[in-house]
Amino acid sequence: MEAIGLSFIDWVIIIIYFGFVLGIGMYLRKYTLNQEDFFLAGRKNSVWVAGLAFLSANLGALELLGMTGNTFKYGMYVAHFYWIGAIPAMLFLGVYMMPFYYSSKINSVPGYLKLRFDEKTRVLNGIAFAIMTLLVSGINLYAMALVLHTFLGWNWDFSMWASAITVAAYVSLSGLMSAIFTEIIQFFLIWFGLFLVSILGIIEIGSLKEIMARINSFSSQVSFTTLWSTSSDPTQNGMFISWGGIVLGLGFVLSFGYWTTDFLVVQRAFSAKDLRTARLTPILASFFKMALPFIVILTGLIAIALSIDPHSGFKLLRDGGQINYDSALPLLIARYYPAGLVGLGVTALLAGFMAGQAGNVSAFNTVWTYDIYKSVLNKNASDAHLLWMGRVSTIVGVVLSLITAYWAKSFPSIMDYMQAIFSWVNAPLFATMLLGMFLWWITPTGAFWGLVAGMSSSFLMYLAVKFHWFAERYITMSSVQSDMAANFWRAWWAWLICAGVTVVISLFTKRRPKAELVGLVKGLTEENYDQHLPFTKKPEFYALISLAVLILLNVLFW
Amino acid sequence: MSEHAMKPIWYFVGLILSIIGALIMLSGIYHLISPPEVKTVLSDLHPDIWWGAVMILFGGTMYLKSRKPSA
Question: What is A8-24+40-392+405-556's CATH superfamily?
Fold first, then answer.
């Protein structure tokens, strides 16, 4: 692949962005005075700041290259990640779970496990989460290196190290606050930098209807342009999955596991100034989440429509004989953007990757410092020492994520890798959280061994399929297979095993007294928050509007 | 607490969108006067000029509305 040259103006824009984020890190440094400032941004953010950061923390490599590439590979079914695979879970977090998280004044999600169950469950989850964030952080580095390699012809190693050093610098300076600031800047840069690709793609092809028509005429056997109407038979859709896998695996387990328990996103809500703001944080974010397919999915569909037209001259890159699906978006930017706009498009991608990496690193430093270091290694650490540890662990986390970035390169599509990790860690954790938050009689022993069983079974299923110990069809219950379907179903089984083991062991082991669980478990906690507000000001009202929009979108693209 | 109140995030968002938007629009005007040899698809629509203008409008409004530091 010949490198796409950047003009002088493109370089100026990219350099301005790098200077800007480093400058923000230095500016915020003087406002980062204690550990709460560093790890929780002082708990003073408005709903707009916390909400956009909540969404943007997830808007890294995953959303940009991965989802556009996956749309090319699987078709419109990828939109399920944004709609049924996100919105119900985000609303559930805001309406039901946030009061328990926020009111208990914990610093992290593993911190809730400590209060609800015991120290060993917290440490187990803390270690699993820390490893997962480093792996996901590595994927952001890999994606960034792909962009720099595609556009500039830069060396992979140099690209990853250059971006990692920048992220390490600004996160270690001011922690979560600088991560949140850059995430919000990234949110706007992504919309301004990438939505234009969708607009110009529609203009070139003619209309959205024409894009769909072209794809349908090319692929009459397998649908790439529907959401549900071909989900009763896995052989009829590009993802080779049935509605059961989508609803149970993605819509329930993976989605709720990610959006309600993954500290990377939930940490942003913890930075809100009060409980109502924290509850509104994921609800506000849900509206923006639903809009994202108009960038990534639409761009992926445009890439399909262009690639099946021999006169368009559009073709995805190939790496070692395999199609590089993740090259779809960079190639469309190169197709439509003149000098200047190319700089903006590249900056938007870079911002997405760096913010995604910064999000993982800021979550990692918190969980490491509170849930592993202070919990196990140094229980009497002072405030100043923890602040220092947060900065050190930021740098160490970035270095470790660099190592994992090289592993990410061995997967043909970014998203498959990401979902595999989530199904190991988040899917079983969601079972533990759900049971722990809603059933008082779940015991610490049950929670711990349920989590162990869920995580290890998910990992073993992954290894078993990868090394052909048994056929994938036993997991997916289908005659046709795809990596994505396997991830969804594996997540479902891991959740079920974790829930089953937790319940059974809890029936035979010692329960904690109800009095100790007040404020941590539904049914034992007085829920009198927001009662003075009229219904139209309550988070529930906005959640209902979001739900209505979700239903409307699914019906429109049925 | 620090001597000066912290500027809101919207100030920084407005600033960077305005600066980058202005650079893109100026670059678009330059391309209009002196067209490049290699043209992109739909370059006749001059997306850099009008998209840069949209960014200046949006970013400028955000910047002007958030110049006062948050309490």
Answer: Sodium/glucose cotransporter (1.20.1730.10)
